[in-house]
Amino acid sequence: MAVSMRLGRTVAARASVARRARAVAADARPMWYPGAAAPKYLDGKLAGDFGFDPLRLGANENLLPYYQEAELMNGRYAMLGCLGALLSEAAFDFNWWEAGAQDYGFSLGQLVAVQVPVMAFLEAKRIEGWQKTGGAGVLNTFPFDPLGYYKGEESNEAEIQNGRLAMVAWLGMCSAAANRGAGPIECLRQHVADPGNVTAFTSDVGLELTVAVVMLSLAPFFVLAKQSLGDGEEENFSPIPFDFN
Predict the structure, then answer these.
(1) Can you tell me the distance from the alpha carbon of 145 to that of 130, in angstroms, rounded to the nearest whole number?
(2) Who wins on pLDDT, 134 or 20?
(3) Which helix (H) or strand (E) holds 139?
(4) How far apart are CA 80 and CA 93, in angstroms?
(5) What secondary structure does DSSP assign to 71-131, as a single string?
(6) What is the dihedral of CA 122, 152, 29, 66, to 10 degrees?
(7) Is the pLDDT higher at 178 or at 35?
(8) What is the pLDDT of residues 70-108, one digit of tens each?
(9) Does residue 143 have a cis peptide bond before it, meaning omega lies within 30 degrees of 0?
């Protein structure tokens, strides 16, 4: 009996030490929520790495650089899309989703004949340059910095964070257009005029949004509970019962 009790205390002490070690490691750099333990492959070397990969998609080290570049490209297009949505409403007399139906003085066939080969060439050069340098550029200029503002890691961090913000903003603009039938500037006007009744939570997707916010707010508590009650054997929390290795 005494041996069993001592063994139990030893196991509990080791689990406590393991949890404290994970907490110290997590505090060494900013994480997506306080106390989170990043997966081994997210070691903080990538720009914008806050240890967030709940589906463990980046566990394949050969695919991780491609995922990072894909996120950057989506973020860049989202930033351009947000800018275009704002300009189409502020400077022109149509909403952003009506831009494709406007008359620009050339036919769809002419647009396709020019855009497809030009974009194919530019994308081929971009991928070729990225594979050689790991950076973003145009034609043979990597990184692409015509104004001389590039500051290395600082610029990389700023770009990925602005890109992530733009992707969330673009999702909001699309949702507002679908539910309110208005662009971002008009939606802002309506909200300012009646802030209590014109919000995302009072729209047609208000219930779904409320459920999502509640689930995301509670998720860290479940993660912390699992780490606190665990035996210290599992180093990384995984919300799915399989991996991608």
Answers:
(1) 15
(2) 134
(3) none
(4) 19
(5) HHHHHHHHHHHHHHHHHHHHHSSS-GGGGGGS--SS-HHHHHHHHHHHHHHHHHHHHHHHH
(6) 20
(7) 178
(8) 999 999 999 999 999 999 998 888 889 888 888 888 888
(9) yes
Q: Which residue has the tokens 């394949």?
A: 60
pTM, to two decimals? 0.72
Question: Tokens 């695919």 — which residue?
Answer: 63
Cβ pair 184, 176 in contact under 8 A: yes
CB contact set of 102 (below 8 Å; sequence gap of 6+): 94
Q: Residue 160 and residue 137: Cα distance in Å, rounded?
A: 15
* 84 or 8, greater pLDDT: 84
pLDDT at residue 4 is higher than 70: no
Average model confidence (pLDDT) for the chain?
79
One-letter amino acid for residue 2 of the chain: A
* DSSP code at position 152: T
Distance, in Å, from the CA atom of 245 to the CA atom of 240, rounded to the nearest integer, reads 13
Q: 38: helix, coil or strand?
A: coil
